[in-house]
């Protein structure tokens, strides 16, 4: 495992996990990571599921666990040569996943990246209902799920505000991240 070799080499590399943690980690359930389609976010009022606003598939996130806690994540993607490592580390994602997996009782998770709004939503199905974990709303934390009825109007409002302020510049290609 090349990442373990690099960590053991003593190089100045801080990816939020030690060589010992990585050596003792076991992979958790792979998690799909998707981008949301920004145009679909503008019209969420009749949507029943965030799946209806999905855009392109991104990487697959594999949480690496030590004693049930996410210590790091490995992102993989499938290319023409098979599966390859697309990223290692992601301290923010690791910390978020630890909280969300604990709060959701290790439910199946889908990670959604929200374009233009710089936020991430973790969707879990709990008792046959989609629940969402996000820190995009100031009054909530990742420990407390919110429902579709709470999330969708907030997302739509934020998307419409972004579109009103920056939409023309985005379409002209004059806005960079």
Summarize the structure.
The protein is of the alpha+beta class. It is 31% helix and 33% strand.
Written account of the structure:
The chain is an alpha+beta fold and 177 residues long. The protein has helices at residues 2-8, 19-24, 38-41, 91-103, 148-171; strands at residues 26-27, 31-36, 54-66, 69-79, 82-89, 109-114, 119-126, 129-133. Strands 1, 2, 3, 4, 5, 6, 7 and 8 form an eight-stranded mixed beta sheet that branches. A hairpin with a 2-residue loop joins strand 4 and strand 5.
- Secondary-structure element sequence? HHEEHEEEHEEEH
Gyration radius, in Å: 18 Å
Helix content, binned percent: 25-40%
Span between termini: 33 Å
Number of strands: 8
What is the SS-derived class? Answer: alpha+beta
**Largest sheet entry:** 8 strands, mixed
pLDDT averaged residue by residue = 85
* Regions with little confidence, pLDDT below 50 for 5+ residues: none
Strand content: 25-35%
Principal-axes shape call: globular
Count of DSSP-assigned helices: 5
Question: Which descriptors would you attach to this protein?
Answer:
8 strands; alpha+beta; 31% helix; 177 residues; eight-stranded mixed beta sheet; globular; single chain
Spell out the blueprint of helices and strands.
Blueprint: H1 2-8, H2 19-24, E1 26-27, E2 31-36, H3 38-41, E3 54-66, E4 69-79, E5 82-89, H4 91-103, E6 109-114, E7 119-126, E8 129-133, H5 148-171
């Amino acid at each position: 495992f090349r990442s373990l070799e690099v960590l053991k080499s003593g190089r100045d590399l801080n990816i939020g996990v030690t060589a010992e943690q990585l050596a003792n980690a076991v992979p958790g359930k792979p998690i799909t990571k998707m981008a949301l389609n920004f145009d679909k976010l503008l019209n969420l009022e009749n949507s029943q599921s965030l799946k209806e606003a999905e855009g392109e598939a991104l990487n697959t996130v594999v949480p690496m666990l030590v004693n049930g806690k996410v210590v790091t994540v490995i992102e993989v993607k499938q290319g023409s040569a098979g599966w390859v490592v697309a990223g290692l580390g992601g301290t923010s994602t690791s910390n978020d996943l630890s909280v969300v997996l604990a709060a959701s009782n290790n439910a199946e998770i889908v990670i959604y990246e929200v374009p233009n709004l710089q936020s991430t939503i973790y969707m879990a199905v709990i008792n046959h209902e989609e629940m969402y974990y996000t820190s995009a709303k100031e009054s909530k934390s990742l420990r407390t799920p919110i429902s579709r009825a709470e999330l969708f109007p907030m997302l739509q409002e934020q998307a419409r505000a972004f579109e009103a302020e920056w939409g023309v510049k985005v379409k002209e290609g004059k806005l960079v991240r």
